[in-house]
From TrEMBL:
Residue ranges constituting the Alpha-macroglobulin-like TED domain according to the UniProt record: 14-119
Source organism superkingdom: Eukaryota
InterPro entries cross-referenced by the UniProt entry: A2M/Complement_sys (IPR050473), Alpha-macroglobulin_TED (IPR011626), Terpenoid_cyclase/PrenylTrfase (IPR008930)
Organism for this UniProt entry: Ranitomeya imitator
PANTHER family: C3 AND PZP-LIKE ALPHA-2-MACROGLOBULIN DOMAIN-CONTAINING PROTEIN 8 (PTHR11412:SF139), MACROGLOBULIN / COMPLEMENT (PTHR11412)
Name used for this protein in its record: Alpha-macroglobulin-like TED domain-containing protein
Pfam families named in the record: TED_complement
SUPFAM superfamilies, A to Z: Terpenoid cyclases/Protein prenyltransferases
């Protein structure tokens, strides 16, 4: 790829990253309407977290943005290990045709793991989510 094309692609990624941050709420979650929504969306926050994690190899992603989203997700985990379907989803395609507690918990857990589980709180969250799947060794490798 010519150097100029690579620079344009990098600039476009930076713009996309900055645009995505406009949907961030003060509590670290993401919503299609930002602060105008009554709450952040669990699906969208996990989607953004996963997207940012995948983008780190191409552009600078502020680790504090990742931490804020992870903290919000962890704070909302239920006692049974699942994650609540909070907030609105305008584009149902991000759910991949899957709905329900197990699908959401699997998606959120994958997003957390993709960013790298670094704190004890994050490890506990991932292990706790295993209860939903009925397999105590899902995340042990």
């Amino acid at each position: 790829m010519p150097r100029r094309d690579a620079e344009e692609l990098r600039a476009a990624r930076e713009v996309s990253y900055q645009r995505q941050l406009t949907y961030k709420r003060q509590d670290g979650s993401y919503s299609a309407f930002g602060e105008r929504d009554s709450s952040g969306s669990m699906w969208l926050t996990a989607f953004v977290l996963k997207s940012f994690a995948q983008s780190r190899g191409f552009i600078f992603i502020d680790p504090l943005e990742l931490s804020a989203a992870k903290d919000w997700i962890i704070q909302h985990q239920k006692k049974d290990g699942s994650f609540p379907a909070m907030g609105r989803i305008l584009n149902k395609d991000i759910q991949g045709g899957n709905h329900g507690k197990i699908a959401l918990t699997a998606y959120v857990s994958a997003a957390l793991l993709e960013t790298g589980v670094t704190s004890e709180e994050e490890k506990k969250c991932c292990f706790k989510s295993q209860r939903i799947f009925g397999n105590p060794h899902v995340f042990s490798k």
